[in-house]
Amino acid sequence: MTATSATASTIRARVDAGSGALVGYLPVGFPSLGGSIDAAVALVENGVDILELGLPYSDPVMDGPVIQAATQRALADGFRLRDGFTAVQAIAQQVSAPILIMTYWNPVVQFGVDRFADELAAAGGAGLITPDLIPDEASTWLDASERVGLDRVFLAAPSSTDARLRRSVEASRGFVYAVSTMGITGARADVDQAARGLVGRLREQGADSTCVGIGISTAAQVAEVLEYADGAIVGSAIVKALGDGGVEAAGELAAELATGKQLARSA
Amino acid sequence: MSLRTEAGPYFGEFGGRFVPESLIAALDELSAAYEVARNDPAFAAELTELLTNYVGRPSVITEVPRFAEHAGGARIILKREDLNHTGSHKVNNVLGQAILTKRIGKTRVIAETGAGQHGVATATAAALFGLECVIYMGEVDTERQALNVARMRLLGAEVIPVTAGSRTLKDAINEALRDWVTNVEHTNYIFGTVAGPHPFPAMVRDFQKIIGEEAREQVLALTGRLPDAVAACVGGGSNAMGIFHAFLDDQDVALYGFEAGGEGAGTPRTAATITVGRPGVLHGARSYLLQDEDGQTVESHSISAGLDYPGVGPEHSWLASIHRAQYRPVTDDAAMQALRLLSRTEGIIPAIESAHALAGALDLGRELGPDATILVNLSGRGDKDMETAARYFDLIDEGARQS
Ligand SMILES: Cc1ncc(COP(=O)(O)O)c(C=O)c1O
């Protein structure tokens, strides 16, 4: 893992400032293409350090009910893959936070891996988070991201062996996505203890930038995760706020979640 | 070179493991346990005992001359997987995976099901082995295969109707995968077909290849030679791989997979994956699939719940790509007509899935001529399909409530 990526430097800067990074997830096209762009900008203006933009997909096996409902609606409203690049470009013109695309693998394959990398880079995107692509199957993406200089975020799970963790660390650039618990996305009352252990094991395998995701929905949980990890990723809670109360509510939640970074610093 | 030694994860450029990292440990565990079991005589003995005394194997073959009159006079021989306990080929695979579940010490099994036959077989094995059992089934399928839902519940399984997406088999698989990611510590996923991530395509095929091994010997004994063609319906492709496998190296035996054409392979309402799809990644494997320009999976359509799937197993994609097997679409109507024809000419009511293979064989017989022998996999029986058939052929008396 090299530290030349904007994502990695943003995380490093937050860690050096005494807290860690807040990563916010939103699907493109929910509640509308423009709405998702405005919401992403509002997240950054309210303290989110890195954006994770999800591309709606017909068969999202890692997603829980809240995100499924939002992405299904975006698809029903006519989401097209190109909208992802449109959103990245529009957001990048307004805020400077690194923008990662979270996408299942088949849409990238059908678009063409190299073409996808080129267009994402041209739009100002930072890289990809690939929930159903393991490094073992990723050779075309490793080559394309290397060529274009995009970040590539692979997942690490509590059940992964040390050898597999090392593989994820070596293949990733930007950060490694530590799956906090065995399961799919969705808010949880307690962020699993397993996350703490996993982050420790990733460090032993050489990770210098690890963000924890899945199940984080409150400022207190953000603070708790930032005690041991470099970043905390919030998804379902933001999507729910956006669905219930629009861009304003999403921004308010982001501001609230960002207080978790202060809590972490004073802890 | 033999085509019968493919062990995955790749079949040519198809297959692989395109799944979240959270599942890799479970897949590795399953692969390792299967590798040990494959070479363990005790495993083989336990499975053989169950297949013999519980399932009723070997299943017989039946020549169907009255049906064959409609196929240009070619000889047609059915492999009778419909006579298996639980009513289809699915039980062959389920028992193998249930024994594996026990060996890796897991106490809960989950499965997806379309027609309900794989769900019934899994619920049956769970009852037999004392395992907790949850079956995911698309809501559309719980309606059109209501009888099988009742069977699964009677067997003690929990049936969860899936309301996401197209509410059919593909969505049931998504939901089962989500359950597995969450509960993988004590749960094994008994996958129902030769699709999905490695090791499922190779493992499920190995558990189903007994169909072709038996049938090859049986046809030789009956006719003194190998069949000219072997025909099977293809949903995910397990009964087809099961009967094809023993014949893969017999270059004179032509292999035909019949996909669900739905309302026509040229219409959007089809499930003819290899015929009209293109390669992509779905449910953990690279294979042919029905998708739009953006790589979004397109909803399939078939009158048959068991074939109503926009994907197909990677070994079939490979066999198609090297032209060892041919894949053809059969419409809903052609399948239903074949279902009725077999019922009336031979007294055998097939599953609608299997009726696709029968319809395909009717055309094949006319093409190959009266000297040809065609082996057809009758993958299941039609009891579960009586409501659909009754509606299709208007078999329920007007006014009389007979349900
Ligand atoms: C009787 C029968 N045949 C065929 C199938 C299709 O599955 P496969 O293509 O894996 O054999 C099913 C699936 O439910 C079935 O019940």
TrEMBL record, chain A:
The keyword Amino-acid biosynthesis applies. Pathway: Amino-acid biosynthesis; L-tryptophan biosynthesis; L-tryptophan from chorismate: step 5/5. Its EC number is 4.2.1.20. The active site is at 52 (proton acceptor), 63 (proton acceptor). GO terms for cellular component: cytosol. It is an enzyme of class 4 (lyase). Keywords: Amino-acid biosynthesis, Aromatic amino acid biosynthesis, Lyase, Tryptophan biosynthesis. Gene3D superfamilies: Aldolase class I. It catalyses: (1S,2R)-1-C-(indol-3-yl)glycerol 3-phosphate + L-serine = D-glyceraldehyde 3-phosphate + L-tryptophan + H2O. One of its GO terms (molecular function) is tryptophan synthase activity. Belongs to the TrpA family. The alpha subunit is responsible for the aldol cleavage of indoleglycerol phosphate to indole and glyceraldehyde 3-phosphate. NCBIfam families: trpA. Tetramer of two alpha and two beta chains. This is Tryptophan synthase alpha chain. It comes from Orlajensenia flava. The lineage of its organism: Bacteria, Bacillati, Actinomycetota, Actinomycetes, Micrococcales.
TrEMBL record, chain B:
Pathway: Amino-acid biosynthesis; L-tryptophan biosynthesis; L-tryptophan from chorismate: step 5/5. It holds the Pfam family PALP. One of its GO terms (molecular function) is tryptophan synthase activity. Keywords: Amino-acid biosynthesis, Aromatic amino acid biosynthesis, Lyase, Pyridoxal phosphate, Tryptophan biosynthesis. Gene3D superfamilies: 3.40.50.1100. GO terms for cellular component: cytoplasm. The keyword Amino-acid biosynthesis applies. NCBIfam families: trpB. Belongs to the TrpB family. Tetramer of two alpha and two beta chains. The beta subunit is responsible for the synthesis of L-tryptophan from indole and L-serine. This is Tryptophan synthase beta chain. It comes from Orlajensenia flava.
